[in-house]
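User: Fold both of these, please.

Assistant: Here is the first one.
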Amino acid sequence: MPSLSLLPFLDIIFATIGIFIVVFALQQIVPQASGRQLTVDHLVICTDERTVSFYPGPTREPATFTSRQFPALMNSLAESAGGVRNLVFAFTSACFETRRTFEEEFAKMTALFHAQQAKRADQTIFRLAFQPLSAQPGAVERLLAAWRSGSSDDAK
């Protein structure tokens, strides 16, 4: 007669296999629902470590800033109308240091801006989003075309 000491072990093995079979048999592919895309009010594009291009609107001409001029860029942002303003910082792989500097300046600006606006009823709230850009030629043009057409597809 076989030893009965292995029966609990075999019971666990068969139960595990049964659970796997049930999970795989009942598993359904759930389509990933995409949420509403972020509306872009202002766009900052960085393609190299030296300069960024600031687009205050889809139809307006860009202004060029260096990382030392970020406070001036933040001042031009502060002049925008009230409400929730979405700022997208699009960057290539050559812009990680500029991205970090911009993020620090943005944090300083929003802290100061919110402290000044705490007493006012018409507050402006800025949201910053980052969007990686491909290094391929034409990535910036595709991003700008998508923004200007009202679509927010990424340029990858």
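And the second sequence with its predicted structure:
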Amino acid sequence: MKRFIPLFTLLLGLHLTAFAQNEEYYKKDTLPQQRRQSTIIIPNEVENNQNPVDSKPVEGRPVSEVPMSMLDRLRLGGSFGLSLGNYTNINLSPMAGLNLTDKLLAGGGLTYMFASYRPFGASASQRVSSSNYGARAFLMYTLLPMVTLQAEYEGLNVQYSNGRDLDRTWIGSPLIGGAYTQPLGGRFTRSILMTALYNLSYDSQISPYTGRNISPYSSPFIFRITFL
């Protein structure tokens, strides 16, 4: 009996070893599944043979900072002024300007002015008429989208009385003021401005012969409609 116990133990060990090998042999292979799960997803850009680096925006200057050509900065137009009453003044002035920056405009223009007034104590038929002409240079600064500041110097050759007959002389007028601005959308004439200016030299524009003001404007305040 004792001889069979070691023999039984040996046979049992051999049986368990063979069973373990069979289990390992018939164990389901999970390697293909693991390979499928580890499949790398290729981005669409690479599948389409596109280089992701090429899709980056090109570095450079923003569109708003691209310098405008001289033609794009050019402004053309003119101004019109009208004053009726005892002192009638009709003012026409073709103008041209150039945008130095997005907000600063510099320019100049020619001026023709027709003035008619009735001297003190004269009848309605005794009105005095004169034609005045000259030029101007100006700066306009856009403070707000609808508010423009303006500084101007205007030189006019005016007709005046020297006490005996009519004479002519040049007078200079520094003007400051502003305008209410509305865009027009044109290429060269881009806005309409309702302009109000003040003549800083008005009170000094006096005739040495008569002591009267020889400015063609009826007051130091000047109102214009400008297209520019």
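Helices lie at 4-26, 31-37, 44-47, 70-73.
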